[in-house]
Each structure stands twice: as structure tokens, then as C-alpha cells.
Amino acid sequence: MVWNFKAAASEKLKRQIFTVLEYILENYEISRLREYKLTGLQLFYEFCIREQITDIQLLELEQETAFQDYLKQKVEKEQRRKRLKSIVETARKVIFIETDETRWDATIWYLERFRIAKERINQSDSIEKISFQEVLQPKNRFFASGIYEVRNWNRRTGAQYGVRKIPNHSKFFAGDQRTGSYQV
Fold first, then answer.
1. What are phi and psi of 69, to 5 degrees?
2. 126 and 133 in contact (C-beta within 8 Å)?
3. CB 108 within 8 A of CB 131
4. How much is the pLDDT for 102?
5. Which pLDDT belongs to residue 184?
6. pLDDT value of position 125
7. Residue 80: what pLDDT?
8. Does the global pTM surpass 0.85?
9. Distance (Å) of CA 3 to CA 7, 38, 39, 51
10. Residue 141 has what pLDDT?
11. 182, exposed or middle or buried, with CB in 10 Å at 0-12, 13-18, 19+?
12. Helices 11-27 + 32-50 axis angle, to 10
């Protein structure tokens, strides 16, 4: 398998693909599953170059659907396509969890990154990720995330409620972003 990191693509995308490539090589033993992940990643990389996608963490729902259509053109067997398309989820998760700083603008957040204390997680209804893909206006994703401050002001002044964007979202997570230890 040959990887062309000199192709005309954003440096960020190349670094992200390389991070996922390293992850697959380090975490999957030589097997059919590893071959599917590597092949899927290579096809996904080709697709991202073709579609001029610059950042996997900002991948939109329509781009993910377009990748599935791309796989239909490239891969004949439906069963193989199903296995190959799982690379999008793998790539997003690896990149979100492995980056140095939390990307609050990512279309999908993986809660594993926040290392929430086990006793704070509902074991009967555990959530792995939060998706903002269905929120079509990127500026509205901020409000969909719930990371904003609502204040109840003095009713005598006439201002009952106020909404304020929090410039540093990480203050809502008690913990240290550098070590990745958080409590919500």
C-alpha cells in the first residue's frame, strides 16, 4: 500500500490521516480487520483530496454521505463497502481523542476524551459521543452544545435573562485539559 503525502491537500488533513494510519498500525494486529481499516483510510484520504476536505473533525453529514457514494463507485461488494465506511468513525474518534487541545468546533465530540469519573456515568444508558452534524448552521452548534451561560438578572432592571458566549469552554469541566482529567 502506497501513501502519497505529497498530494495537493491541506497539511492538517495529511497530519490527521497520518495520525490515524499510525493508530491503526499500532492498535490492530495483522488481520482482515486491519486490512479493511487501512484500505478504508486510503480510500477516505483519496476522497478528502478529491473533495478538498481540509479537516476531518469538521466533516459534515453531506460529505460523509458523499464518501459512501464514492465507495459505491470504487468497491463492488456491499459487505466490503459497509466495512470500509467505518473508517470515518474511526478517524474522527482517533483524531478527537488524540489531539493536544479539545476541538470544541468538531462536528462530533467523543466523551472518552474527557475521562469522566465512572460513578458520574449512567451505566444503563451510556453515551459515547455527541453529534452536531444535524445542526446545519455552524454558528448554532455552539448553542446546541449547551456550553453557554444563562444569567438571571435583577428583575427590577427589566433584564430577566441573558445569554453569554463563554470564550473558554473548558471552565465548564472541572479538571485539567493538559492531562485530560475532567469532571462534568
1. -65, -40
2. no
3. yes
4. 84
5. 40
6. 74
7. 87
8. no
9. 9, 10, 11, 18
10. 63
11. buried
12. 180
**The residue to which cell 483519496 is assigned:** 46
- The reported pLDDT for the residue numbered 66 is 93
* Encoded amino acid at 12, one letter: K
| Residue 131, amino acid | S
Q: Residues 174-177: contacts with CB within 8 Å, 24+ apart?
A: 175/114, 175/115, 177/101, 177/102
111, 130 contact by CB (below 8 A): yes
Q: Which amino acid is at 11?
A: E
CB 174 within 8 A of CB 183: yes
**Low-confidence spans in the chain with pLDDT less than 50:** 147-184
Which residue, chain included where needed, has cell 453569554?
Answer: 164
Strands, E assignment, the chain: 108-110, 129-131, 148-152, 161-165, 174-176, 181-183
Identify residue 169 by its one-letter amino acid code.
H
